[in-house]
Design brief:
By secondary structure, the chain is of the alpha/beta class. The protein has a single domain, classed as Rossmann fold. 42% of the residues lie in helices and 18% in strands. The protein has a 7-stranded parallel β-sheet with strand order 3-2-4-1-5-6-7, with helices on both faces. The longest helix has 21 residues. It binds adenosine-5'-triphosphate and magnesium ion. The site of magnesium ion has 5 residues, from α1.
């Protein structure tokens, strides 16, 4: 069953946020999901230690460079969805996880500098394809985009990616307080109340 790996060497690209949102959405629909928290800072484990983690979602935190392939294979044999959250640097752990992926999602913010970092992730995916002699599907996920405006830069990046045959998800992760809030309050997006989702207007 699918192993979906979130990878980008760019710190803060939105890997952990997108990984948790995808995992909770799958779990909410009743699917069993294992999230392998392969970032030594363990952001997903910290999220899961707060209230509201869906019952069908398990986070595996003890993974290391030496164990990641075994961990992915063991989880994939047990549950329908395995999601891997990686650290924002190039490492053997990242390369190993990509080598076992059915789909690599490359979260990217909408700037030229961020797109250049996404290109590095894509080069690594292509290298792993050649090294392991297997097709590894991937797609770029645009993150922290504005729901209201479509900046020229973003349009330019999309066109450049299309020219280079880089697949980009039609769906974007807009900049939303709720995506930050799940890491403060725990649980899925739907578990947030209105003031947690939108922030409170302070009155003085
Ligand atoms: N769509 C979004 N809307 C609002 N805030 C977001 C969104 N996506 C990410 N963030 C915020 O941006 C910061 C970086 O996001 P995140 O931790 O998901 O990135 P990352 O790629 O996992 O970073 P790292 O490489 O350090 O692991 C966090 O503070 C997160 O709350
Ligand atoms: Mg992260």
């Amino acid at each position: 069953m699918p192993t979906i790996v979130f990878a980008s060497p760019k710190g803060g690209a939105g890997k952990s946020t997108s990984a948790v949102v995808l995992a909770t959405e799958l779990a909410r629909r009743g699917a069993e999901v294992v999230v392998i928290d392969a970032d030594p800072n363990r952001p997903v484990s910290r999220w899961a230690s707060r209230p509201g983690c869906p019952k069908t979602l398990t986070v595996l935190a003890e993974t290391t460079e030496a164990s990641i392939i075994d961990d992915i294979e063991a989880a994939a044999a047990r549950v329908p969805f395995v999601i891997v959250d990686l650290e924002g640097t190039a490492s053997m752990t990242v390369a190993y996880a990509i080598s076992r992926a059915d789909l690599v999602i490359v979260p990217t913010q909408g700037s030229q500098l961020d797109a250049a970092e996404a290109a590095k992730a894509i080069r690594l995916i292509r290298q792993q394809e050649r090294a392991f002699g297997r097709r590894i599907l991937y797609a770029v996920l645009l993150t922290r985009t504005s729901a209201a405006i479509r900046p020229r830069t973003l349009q330019h990046i999309r066109e450049e990616m299309a020219r280079n045959d880089v697949p980009v998800f039609g769906t974007q992760m807009h900049e939303r307080e709720a995506f930050r809030a799940i890491f403060s309050f725990g649980g899925p997006l739907q578990g947030l109340n209105v003031s947690q989702s939108f922030g409170k207007t302070e009155s003085y």
